[in-house]
Write a structure and sequence with these properties.
Strand content: 25-35%
Oligomer: single chain
Mean pLDDT: 79
Shape: globular
Distance between the termini: 49 Å
Helix content: 10-25%
Order of helices and strands: HEEHEEEEHEEEEEEE
Radius of gyration: 17 Å
Number of strands: 13
Length: about 190
């Protein structure tokens, strides 16, 4: 079983729970780390996960070098669940669940009100090598969409059928474009374009 950490939000999300302006304002504030079955993301460690769920079906390095503990059918979800840990501290950074046959309506029923549609863009002034993009940032005109419960630390991917439920220790991206200075001018290579 291969643990792959890819975040590809829907490019054509259809549902909006609140206006984009309100969603962006909410997305920039109110984030709290997620809790899953008593495990607080960013605090729980490898031993806590194993004590709660037993031996994983697979454990090893996933894409990006992080340590991954893979389980099936936990926490009331049918499907694969990957805990992502810091390989040095063994602290759980996040959990992504790929549920089977789980809809957006079921997610809203499970997590309640307070979901916001958030738009993101990828920073273009970073060269991370190997074709990797820079960090994501909140952008009212962004091309990437996620549905988030920021007050719960949960992000949902999928327009109607949920592809992934992510329990996070920190927000997906930055509050603003790191490639612009405080006056909104584009930065390139340590200099600012006017």
């Amino acid at each position: 079983m291969l643990c792959v950490a890819l975040v590809m939000p829907d490019l054509a999300a259809e549902q909006k729970y609140v206006s984009e302006a309100v969603a962006q304002k909410w997305a920039a504030a109110g984030f709290r780390p997620a809790v899953f079955e008593g495990l607080l993301m960013g605090k729980a460690k490898r031993g806590d996960v194993i004590a709660r769920f037993g031996k994983p079906v697979w454990e090893g390095r996933g894409e990006g070098g992080g340590l991954c503990l893979s389980y099936r059918d936990i926490g009331g979800f049918k499907g694969i669940a990957n805990f992502w840990l810091n390989s040095k501290t063994l602290v759980v950074n996040s959990l992504d669940i790929a549920p089977q046959d789980f809809t957006k309506e079921q997610a809203v029923a499970k997590f309640g009100k307070g979901a916001v549609l958030t738009r993101w863009s990828m920073a273009t002034c970073f060269d991370l090598g190997w074709g990797l993009m820079g960090p994501s940032y909140l952008d009212p005109h962004g091309e990437l969409f996620t549905t988030e419960y920021r007050h719960l630390g949960i992000m949902i991917e999928g327009a109607t059928r949920v592809r992934s439920i992510d329990y996070m220790s920190r927000p997906l991206g930055l509050d603003r474009d790191p490639c612009k200075d405080k006056d909104g001018r584009k930065k390139t290579g340590g200099t600012v374009k006017k």
